[in-house]
Each structure stands twice: as C-alpha cells, then as structure tokens.
Amino acid sequence: LLQGPPRLFTMPEETKNAMKKRLKAxxxxxxxxxxxxxxxxxxxAAGPKKAKLTVAGDAEEELDPTQYFENRTKLLSKLESExxxxxxxxxxxxxxxxxxxxxxxxxxxxxxxxxxxxxSIAGRIGAIRLQGKLLxxxxxxxxxxxxxxxxxxSYAGGEDAWQQITSTLRRGDVxxxxxxxxxxxxxxxxxxxxxxxxxxxxxxxxxxxxxxxxETRFRQRYLDMILDxxxxxxxxxxxxxxxxxxxxxxxxxxxxxxxxxxxxxxxxATARPFATRHNELGxxxxxxxxxxxxxxxxxxxxxxxxxxIGRQFRNEGMDATHNPEFTTCEFxxxxxxxxxxMDMTEEMVSGMVKxxxxxxxxxxxxxxxxxxxxxxxxxxxxxxxxxxxIEIEKKHPGVTVEFPDINDEPKALAYLIExxxxxxxxxxxLTVAKVTDQLVGDYIxxxxxxxxxxxxxxxxMSPLAKYHRSKPGMTERFxxxxxxxxxxxxxxxxxxxxxxxxxFQEQAKQGEKDDEAMVPDESFCVALEYGLPPTGGxxxxxxxxxxxxxxxxxxxxxxxxxxxxxxxxxxxxxxAPTTGLSAAPPP
Length: 587
Known about the structure:
The protein has helices at 16-46, 65-81, 97-104, 159-168, 214-219, 221-227, 230-250, 292-300, 338-357, 384-395, 409-423, 432-443, 497-510, 522-529, 542-550, and strands at 119-131, 134-141, 144-150, 174-183, 189-200, 255-256, 262-263, 275-278, 283-287, 305-313, 325-334, 361-366, 369-374, 381-383, 452-455, 477-482, 485-492, 535-541.
C-alpha cells in the first residue's frame, strides 16, 4: 500500500447559537452551586436541625400494635435515661375538667383568652391535630372535653421544651396542663398552656373507632370507658338509683346494716349457691344467696327497720338478665305487711324514675322494638292463681281450669302435668312450684309491660312468706314485674317457728328434684322462737332497675366487671357438684 503524508483533523468552528447555550448553562450551574453553598453555610451557622413534630395518628398508627408498643417502650426508656420522669408522683390540677367547663364556658368570648387567670387541669388525650404551626390536643375527663391550643413561640419553656413534650405525646396519654383559659375563633373552649407535663403514658395503640368486639368491651372495661364517655353515664345512673333508695329508707328511720357473705347454710332464697372452704375452721361454707335470714334476726333483736344494699351470689345460668353476682336492696319493717310494702314500692320506684329521668314514662328497647313503660302509680295487682286461670282460659278457649289444692304435691303435680299437655306447655322441672312458676311466666308475666304486682303465691313457692289470712294454701307475697321482668319480691314474713320448720322440711323434699330448693336453717328457727314481730320484708334488684333507666338490654352493660368466661376456657360436660367441696383436709 502506498503511504502518503498523515492527515490532520481539526475541530469544527463553534457557532454563535451553540456558544450562547454553553455560556448560559455554565452560568446557571455556577448560580446553583453558589446557592447550595450559601444554604450549607446558613445551616451550619443555625446549628443542628430540629426534629419535625410527630403527631400520633399519622405514620405511627399505621404500625402493627406490637410494633407500636415496642416503639413506645423504647421512647419512654430513652426519656428516662435522659432524666425525664415519665411517671411523676404529683400534679396539682386546680380544677377538674367539668369544673373548668362550668367556670369558663359562660364567661369567655370567642377568639379571646383570659391572660390574667392561670389555672391547671389534667386528663386523657383523645385526639391530636396539627394545623400549620398550631397544635390542638383534646383532653377528656368527667364526661367533657377541653381543647389545648399551643404553638412553639408562645410556650413559656421555649421552643426546645415545646418540641420535646409535643413530640412525646400520643393519644391515650394522661397529661397535666397549666395555662390561661380562652376560646378559639370557632368558640371551642380551650386552654393556652405555659406548661404541659406527661403524667402517665399510654403504652398501647388506642382504637380510633371504638371497640367493635362486645366481649372485648366487657373484658377491658377501662378501655371501653376511655373510648366512650357514655359508658360512665350508665354507672352514674346506677349510683343515683342506689343513692335514692338509701335516702328514701333513711328518711323513714331505717338503719343500714351489713350481714355475713359466707354462711354454713345457704338460706334466704331458693337458689343454687357457690361453695367455698374455711381453712382455719376446716368447714365448707357458701356464699350468700340472700341476706334475708340475718336481717330478720336483727328485727327479732329489736331493730324494727333495717336494710342492706349489697352483693348476692347465685351459682346459676348467665343470660341477658342474670349474672352470678348481683346487687340487691333488702329491707325489713316491723309491724308492716305486704299491702304496706306494695304502697311503698309504688311510691319509691315511681319517685325514683321521675327524679332520675324527669318523667314517669320511659322508652325501653327490647328484641321486639321500642316499648313505652309508664311508671305512674297506682299499678295493677294480680292474684296469681286467679289471674293464671283467667289468662289460660282466655288463650285456650274450651279449656277449663280448676286448680286443686296447689300445696297437695302429688295431686297438684298430676293436675298441672295434665293441664300442660292440654295447652301445649312442656314442664322443665317436675315440681309443683317449678311448673306453676313456668306457667306464670308464660301467661301472666307476658302481660306485665307497665309495672304490675303478681300477688298471693302458693306456700310451696314461698317458704319464708306468711300464710294468707283469707286464701287457704296461699301466702301474702308479691312480685313486681316491669317489661316482663321481675324487679321486686316482698311478703308478709312468716314468724311462726312451727310452720317455718314445716316449710323447711317441705323444701328439703323438693331438693331431691330441684337443686335450687331452700335448705333448713335451725338457727333461724330458734331465733323465731324468741318472737319476730309482724314484719314486712322487701327486696329489689339494683341491676335490673338500672337496665330500665339506661335502656340497656343486657345486665352486663350495667355491671362494671361482669362475669366472663376465661379466654380459651372449655366448659366441662357435666355440672360441678351443687353443694360441698372436695374433702381436702384443713391445712
């Protein structure tokens, strides 16, 4: 190949347009670099950058509850290690939240604050909201809410202190606040804080939309009350019921007393007891099913008017109206009978309903819908066996009811079984008392929506009631029913020790078929031998009354801590023994 001289390559000459673009890009890059350098110098001069305010409910509350708990634990441990007390011993709250609202709500105008007044409150955080530079925190307690309005510049402790406390707070925390009262432009009662203190942190994530699982509500009642202030209202009504009964009786010279809750004999009511053991004495004992026998012994001793408000324990089924432990009021008045007590019941209960609700009429929700209940006295009085005859014959034309002596067990039981066959009722327990009670439930209680008394029970159903003065085989007893549910039970007390022993023996025979039958109590019979004056005895269930006045369909709603089956518990196939305990020797 021929080789010639090497060829020289020259760059093409830059056009004017290309040069303009290049110079423009170089100038922009230089300006950007200068701006970045200036920002870096300014940041260095300002010192470390402050952490951004964290508001619970943003990214944190999207975490798994376990991770939330772990993060919260780490944060609180960090604060403790830095010298911050997360569980202080004391905070001087000058006003309760309810007092704060009643004091400042009427006196402060919208969009103003009273800087001359400094006070302090405490409560639980319900919500945290960040709007621009303003932080809003809702503090709840006493059934009311007060808003905290705060920002970094107005906080007395300075921006660093404000940043530290606000980044620590979460929904559910208990917080103490000192500051001046005021209102937002929208009229929201607020407090403008000069000091905020974490008093007790909430370690767990608090549900935003309440508790959806009913069982969880009852197992964690404290959480239920944190999330729904209306729950507290139920128990305020319950307390009002108890206070009214106590005031009513105190004004009539009754003496409030306390009697034993553990007994060697489970007397005073036909119910299945809870058994326990007294190790020191080496004996089996029973939780009381009723305080009745002890209270009547006090009347024998000269306390003519006594009452007790307390817990009873019955080892029976649980349903919408029954809990193993429940609260009753029982009173005993010497020289009164069941007619006097019906009059007192009308006066007490109707007066209580009027005072608490403002009216004699209330609306109550049942499975069948809303029911209007009118407590205005007087109330109807149905003699049990007479009314039962009327209602059965009304619902079953062609069936004639002629009850034999209801206390003649063999004859009466045979007749009742035959009658049940005619009207299509299947007896559950084959004793005269139980079959009669079942029929009363089906035919009389069903019509008792407004308050009504069912009176004059057979003696086989009322072992502690006095025999009727004009109706052989009956007793002077009444039960008050409201919306088909028993609310009160009362009678002229049996004070003849000979008859009382006979009644106890009859109940003992029923115990062969009925594990709720009453057992003999000889010590009570001996007390009667010293002379019990003519006496009227009365009992009312506080829980059921509260259900009516708070419109609750379950007794669990009116008990702070209702009986609950343990999680994972499997009930045994057979019932436990009804009486006695294992024969373990005393220690």
